[in-house]
Each structure stands twice: as C-alpha cells, then as structure tokens.
Amino acid sequence: MNLKIRTMEKADRKKLIEILRKTCVFRKNEIAVAIELIDIYIKNPKQKDYIFFVAESNGVVAGYICYGQDNCTQGAYNIYWIAVSPDFQGMGIGGKLLEFAERKIMSRKGEIIVVETSSTKKYEPTRKFYLAKKYRAEAILKDFYKNGDDKVIFIKRLSKNNKKFMENSNGKMEKNVA
Hints:
Layout (H helix, E strand, L loop, with lengths): L2 E5 L5 H10 L5 H16 L7 E7 L2 E10 L6 E9 L8 H15 L4 E7 L5 H9 L3 E11 L2 E9 L5 H4 L12
Parallel strand pairs: 4-5
Antiparallel strand pairs: 1-2, 2-3, 3-4, 5-7, 6-7
C-alpha cells in the first residue's frame, strides 16, 4: 500500500463526507459537525483552529484527521476527528494519521493531546485504538451525550525531549508540510 498524507483540499470534501457516512459509527448530528469543520477549513485554510490532513492510498482518499490547539491553553491540542473509509480500515491508516498529527503537534511545542469519545459499545474499537496508541482514559463524564452514553476523555502527554518519536522510518527528522 502506497500511503501519502497531505493537507486537505477543497476537492476532498465530497469523499470525506462519504467516508463519515460509510463508517456507520457517527450519528447524523455528529456528521453535521464534522462537515461544519470541513467547510470552515475549506473557506479559510489559513485559520488555525482546525487543521486537516488526508490519507491517500494509491491516489484514493482513505481517511482524514482533524485536530487543533485549544486556544485557552499553552500546548494542549484536541484531536477532533479521525475517520477511515471502511474499505481501508484495519490497514493501519488511522494509526498513521494519528502519529502524523502527533509529530506535527510536537513540532509546534504541543505537550498534551486530548481526545473525546463515547462509552457505547459501537465506540469500543475506538477506545481500544487510543489505548493501544498509549493514550490514557483521564476522565469519564457520566451520561454526557445522553442517558447511558458517557464521554470518555483520553489524553497523551508528549515528551519535549523525545526526538526518536519525531524521526521518520529513515531516521531523519520529518519536515513540516503545513
């Protein structure tokens, strides 16, 4: 698999919406929020609140990640969305997108990453994914989304001195592409 991670382009919008719908995980209101963020980025790509990268496999859009700095903090970032097409799930693309974003965040002196997700059974693979990527469940807000659906808040603290994490597979420092 030839995987390329690049900045999102306006032409990606339709495919990203299709991915969000095809995953069968997100509710309609969640998809509406994701589309709103996509549109904010497309209308003003120089804004800094929402940063988007797309993964392409052999020229086909396979998934995306959206993250941004929490503006009220010094060094805290949120991962807002990771979505991978069902056609490409299980191939490590979500992990590569997350690791790519982590390197970008570290290059911007980010110190902590926050991810929020649901406690429902359909989000169990998502929670296992973050645990496998060394995120820790920091807090649970009971009945946050609705009765019986808690918000699980994961965090990952980034080491400022962890150069090895910043190295790519060739042992060279990754160049900033955004």
